[in-house]
């Protein structure tokens, strides 16, 4: 099984949505990513939690086969984020971000972790992302994500990092803010010029875009009538996407990248059906593949070559 190393936040989230709320629930970019990617590949998690991090959360992660040997416990409080969502579930309003133990986190990767071929720099301080990447021994694939908190405070560090990134994920509004462009297509164009050969722009309940070379590919979301909690959708999207690519072992083929987009959309759709990590912790691969096929079948529109030929013949 191919392996992925992920560094990012491990958090206690307090979230309010139109469907309810949760308080100090398990969250964080690296958490959602790991739980989604582990259905496809083995995952090693690098990060830090405080001494208040519940033992049951660590047990949940290790119980799902995630390598937590790089998950350190430091004196102090775990990273905390609180946010709320209105009717547009694709826009989170951040109410508070407390970096806590992440403020002083300086990870030193083990020899085994440095050799992992696929690395995901999940949303966290871009300087920390760069520090982890610098320790890797020529990874085959480098992917990264970020968010408005870091775009606002450290945009230059993000741009510097992007020169070393193959695949970049971000939300529509974040792409526009980072690139200083008014729409996601223009924004992806600018971001690609800084380094990544693949740029994925997530548009929440409006689907996603993938730019490879000069071409944009468009994807709808998996249709769901109710979204309980969008938190972590972007990270589980990246987990499904990179998990699938790592399992395929091919990183630059358009068909594999399109399937990765579909698996990403599917994992994100499971994620938002319940609060925190509840709905992605105990899926099974058959259920995921079933929804993947349902999704790609719904997306495909038959070509009309015959109809066009007949129309032209009649017109001639
Ligand atoms: P998303 O996939 O974008 O919904 O990511 C949500 C997760 O990101 C939440 O579980 C938060 O704990 C985490 N998060 C929020 N703000 C930050 C930040 N500034 N840096 C790292 N992680 C964050």
What is the level 1 CATH name? Answer: Alpha Beta
Q: Report how far apart the termini are.
A: 57 Å
What's the arrangement of strands in the largest beta sheet? 5-4-1-8-9-10-11-12-13
Sheet-strand content, in percent, reads 25-35%
Number of domains: 1
Most strands sheet: 9 strands, mixed
Rg: 19 Å
The CATH architecture would be 3-Layer(aba) Sandwich
Q: Please provide the count of β strands.
A: 13
Residue share in helix:
25-40%
Could you outline the blueprint of secondary structure elements for this entry?
Blueprint: E1 3-7, E2 11-17, E3 20-27, H1 29-37, E4 42-50, H2 55-63, E5 67-74, E6 79-85, E7 92-98, H3 111-114, E8 118-121, H4 126-135, E9 141-145, H5 148-153, H6 155-162, E10 167-171, H7 172-179, H8 184-193, E11 198-202, E12 208-212, E13 215-219, H9 233-248, H10 254-271, H11 285-299, H12 305-315
Parallel strand pairs: 1-4, 1-8, 2-6, 4-5, 8-9, 9-10, 10-11
Antiparallel strand pairs: 2-3, 6-7, 11-12, 12-13
Helix pairs in contact: 1-9, 7-8, 9-10, 10-11
This protein binds adenosine monophosphate.
Overview of the structural elements:
The protein has 316 residues and is an alpha/beta fold. It has a single domain, classed as Ribokinase (UDP-N-acetylmuramoyl-L-alanine:D-glutamate ligase), CATH 3.40.1190. 39% of the residues lie in helices and 25% in strands. It has helices spanning 29-37, 55-63, 111-114, 126-135, 148-153, 155-162, 172-179, 184-193, 233-248, 254-271, 285-299, 305-315; strands at 3-7, 11-17, 20-27, 42-50, 67-74, 79-85, 92-98, 118-121, 141-145, 167-171, 198-202, 208-212, 215-219. Strand 2 (11-17) and strand 3 form a beta hairpin. The longest helix has 18 residues, at 254-271. It starts with a strand and ends with a helix. 48% of the residues are buried. The mean pLDDT is 97. The structure holds adenosine monophosphate. Residues 9, 11, 13, 27-29, 32, 81, 97, 123-124, 147, 149, 231-235 line the site of adenosine monophosphate. Residues 9, 11, 13, 27-29, 32, 81, 97, 123-124, 147, 149, 231-235 line the site of adenosine monophosphate (AMP).
């Amino acid at each position: 099984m191919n392996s992925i190393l992920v560094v990012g936040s491990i958090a206690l989230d307090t979230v309010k949505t139109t469907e309810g709320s949760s308080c100090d629930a398990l969250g964080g970019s690296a958490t959602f990513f790991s739980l989604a990617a582990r259905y496809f590949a083995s995952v090693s998690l690098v990060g830090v939690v405080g001494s208040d991090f519940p033992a049951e959360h660590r047990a949940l992660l290790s119980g799902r086969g995630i390598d937590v040997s790089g998950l350190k416990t430091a004196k102090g409080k775990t990273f905390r984020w609180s946010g709320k969502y209105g009717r547009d579930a694709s826009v989170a309003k951040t109410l508070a971000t407390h970096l806590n133990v992440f403020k002083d986190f300086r990870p030193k990767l083990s020899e085994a972790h440095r050799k992992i071929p696929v690395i995901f720099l999940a949303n966290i301080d871009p300087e920390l992302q760069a520090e982890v990447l610098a320790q890797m021994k020529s990874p085959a694939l480098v992917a990264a994500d970020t968010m408005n908190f870091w775009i606002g405070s450290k945009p230059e560090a993000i741009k510097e990092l992007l020169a070393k990134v193959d695949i970049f994920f971000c939300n529509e509004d974040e792409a526009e803010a980072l690139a200083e462009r008014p729409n996601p297509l223009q924004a992806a164009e600018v971001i690609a010029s800084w380094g990544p050969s693949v740029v994925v722009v997530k548009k929440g309940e409006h689907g996603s875009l993938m730019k490879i070379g000069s071409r944009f590919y468009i994807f709808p979301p998996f249709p769901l009538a109710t979204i309980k909690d969008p938190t972590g959708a972007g990270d589980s999207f990246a987990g499904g996407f990179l998990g699938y690519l790592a399992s395929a072992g091919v990183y630059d083929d358009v068909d594999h990248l399109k399937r990765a987009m579909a698996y990403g959309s599917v994992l994100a759709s499971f994620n938002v059906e319940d609060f925190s990590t509840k709905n992605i912790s105990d899926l099974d691969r058959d259920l995921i593949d079933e929804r993947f096929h349902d999704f790609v079948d719904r997306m495909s529109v038959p070509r009309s070559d015959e109809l066009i030929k007949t129309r032209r013949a009649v017109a001639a």
